[in-house]
């Protein structure tokens, strides 16, 4: 029985040039931190890249949150403690006040057609709606991108972030942690995403995915554009529930 629908954010609810956004985010953060630490902004490019790669590694064996590992890796590379209260406040202000202005230009952020309707449709169907975005950014950065997508934190029962996750997609541990925080089983969740790699849990763990990208992944239980999913969601959930009942699922 499907109880929750989990949406990806980037290129699922929000159309944007993600690499351009990351580059703009890192450039702005590097200038800010370099000014505080009296180093060259260019010297922080490698520490940022290494920290993102560290949290994204699929063979991690640590018990740290993504935020803890990111901060630890960054400090080891450049000596700047992102968890220092003064530095943390500086970054929080940057992400709250500056990052929301990064939507234009080459980033070209705008809502995906049908995204708002799909989110509203989940709640209208009596299901739980959550934002399972790859947890590589803070909640403040997620809020900025949600705003560009025409949704907000209030639209979701839970949003995955750097601070509340200990793995990244497509690791099954990430999805299991997210479902645990929602209070549901993975078999009771429908993931909606555009990435044929990251939005399908690895290894398989019972999570089903409706695919709104441009490929044709064999594991998808549904394929098509977001606007079509918004219209077909009740029927899709009904079909998945009937399939579950037919195989002895709850």
CATH topology of the largest domain: Rossmann fold
CATH architecture of the largest domain: 3-Layer(aba) Sandwich
Q: What is the arithmetic mean of pLDDT?
A: 96
Largest sheet composition:
5 strands, parallel
The helix tally amounts to 8
Q: Tell me the distance between the termini.
A: 6 Å
Strand order of the largest sheet: 4-1-5-6-7
Estimate nothing, just give the exact number of structural domains.
2
> What's the β-strand tally?
7
Provide the CATH superfamily of the largest domain: HAD superfamily/HAD-like
Low-confidence stretches: none
What letter string, H or E per element, gives the SSE order?
EEHHHHEHEHHEEEH
What is the highest CATH level, the class of the largest domain? Alpha Beta
Note the main attributes of this structure.
250 residues; alpha/beta; Rossmann fold; 9% strand; globular
């Amino acid at each position: 029985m499907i109880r929750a629908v989990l949406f990806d954010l980037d290129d699922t609810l929000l159309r944007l040039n993600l690499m351009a956004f990351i580059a703009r985010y890192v450039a702005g953060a590097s200038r800010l931190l370099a000014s505080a630490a009296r180093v060259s902004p260019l010297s922080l490019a490698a520490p940022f890249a290494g920290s993102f790669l560290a949290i994204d590694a699929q063979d991690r064996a640590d018990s740290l949150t993504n935020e803890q590992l990111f901060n630890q890796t960054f400090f080891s590379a450049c000596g700047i403690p992102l968890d220092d209260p003064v530095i943390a406040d500086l970054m929080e202000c940057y992400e709250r006040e500056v990052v929301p202005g990064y939507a234009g230009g080459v980033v070209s952020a705008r809502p995906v057609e049908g995204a708002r309707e799909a989110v509203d449709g989940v709640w209208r169907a009596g299901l739980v709606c959550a934002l399972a975005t790859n947890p590589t950014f803070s909640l403040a950065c997620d809020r900025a991108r949600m705003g560009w997508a025409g949704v907000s934190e209030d639209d979701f029962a839970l949003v995955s972030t750097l601070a509340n996750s200990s793995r990244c997609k497509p690791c099954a541990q990430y999805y299991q942690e997210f479902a645990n925080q929602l209070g549901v089983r993975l078999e009771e969740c429908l993931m909606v995403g555009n990435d044929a790699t990251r939005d399908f849990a690895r290894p398989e763990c019972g999570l089903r995915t409706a695919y709104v990208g441009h490929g044709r992944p064999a594991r998808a239980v549904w394929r098509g554009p977001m606007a079509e999913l918004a219209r077909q969601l009740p029927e899709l959930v009904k079909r998945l529930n009937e399939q579950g009942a037919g195989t002895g699922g709850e």
